Amino acid sequence: METFENVYQYPFSVIDGKPFEQKGRWNEECFGNSNPIILELGCGKGEYTVGLAKRYPDTNFIGVDIKGARIYTGAKQALEEKLGNVAFLRTNIEIIDRFFAENEVQEIWLTFSDPQMKNPRKRLSSTYFLKRYKRFLIDRGTIHLKTDSNLLFTYTSALVQQNNLPVLLQTNDLYNRNAELPADKLDLYTREILNIRTYYENQWIERGLNIKYIKFALPHDISLHEPDVEIEIDDYRSFKRPKRSGLSTSK
Ligand SMILES: C[S@@+](CC[C@H](N)C(=O)[O-])C[C@H]1O[C@@H](n2cnc3c(N)ncnc32)[C@H](O)[C@@H]1O
């Protein structure tokens, strides 16, 4: 990946104590245009980053993950398909606000993020992370969360409700025709986007799990509080291995 022009590798050991010089200058220095920027956080192989970039050539997409071997797949595909509106950043999302300036990002996608059953602060939709996203997301910027995890979906929905964040769309069974809001009832644009299926998503679908989706806005003038709800942990995640935490619920 060292030779890939669309990959920026800044693990904590590299960025520690130094300012990131491209902060606030992604469009000028990386994309050479002034188009909106959308991030996919915890992008893995980057299916959303690449899939969205192909559909929306006038928007710039950056996939972020700490695991280089996963990013490699998406970065290679983007280079092979000559997608000039794609980049990947390898870093820890805990320090994501070091890489983007105020109002530099239009939207964020969280695709099949780890539910972090024992540690709510580490969930990519926790107030710890939302406070950091607010520093570079436009006012009322959109956050999309697509997940198999009942715990992560319930937690995020409760957080959104408790903080009065505007909900733009929400369904707990996206691909089921009998659900309250199934994919085929959505407008064409949303349906097209939500049909991009990631590596992890395909595995959960094969196991018969329903896919949940919530899209909400993050206003700047809001002080965020963690939700106070007890949620059942996702039992199926300990499939074929013993439950490590021994817990049956989590905050
Ligand atoms: C379950 S995988 C999902 C990957 C991909 N979005 C998909 O749906 O196939 C979660 C990804 O988030 C990344 N991740 C989790 N926490 C992270 C963090 N704090 N910083 C960077 N990457 C993180 C992991 O490395 C992993 O690739």
TrEMBL record:
Binding site for substrate: D148, T198, Y199, Y200, E201
Keyword Phosphoprotein: no
SUPFAM superfamilies: S-adenosyl-L-methionine-dependent methyltransferases
Annotated residues for binding of S-adenosyl-L-methionine: E40, D65, N92, D114
UniProt cross-references to InterPro entries, sorted A to Z: SAM-dependent_MTases_sf, tRNA_(Gua-N-7)_MeTrfase_Trmb, tRNA_methyltr_TrmB_bact
CDD domains cross-referenced by the UniProt entry: AdoMet_MTases
GO cellular component, as recorded: tRNA methyltransferase complex
Pfam families linked to this entry: Methyltransf_4 (PF02390)
EC number, as in UniProt: 2.1.1.33
Keywords assigned by UniProt, alphabetized: Methyltransferase, S-adenosyl-L-methionine, Transferase, tRNA processing
Biological pathway: tRNA modification; N(7)-methylguanine-tRNA biosynthesis
Taxonomy, superkingdom: Bacteria
Gene Ontology molecular-function annotations: tRNA (guanine(46)-N7)-methyltransferase activity
Catalyzed reactions: guanosine(46) in tRNA + S-adenosyl-L-methionine = N(7)-methylguanosine(46) in tRNA + S-adenosyl-L-homocysteine
Similarity annotation: Belongs to the class I-like SAM-binding methyltransferase superfamily. TrmB family.
Function statement: Catalyzes the formation of N(7)-methylguanine at position 46 (m7G46) in tRNA.
Matching NCBIfam families: PRK00121.2-2, tRNA (guanosine(46)-N7)-methyltransferase TrmB
Protein name, as recorded: tRNA (guanine-N(7)-)-methyltransferase
The species this protein was found in: Prevotella micans F0438
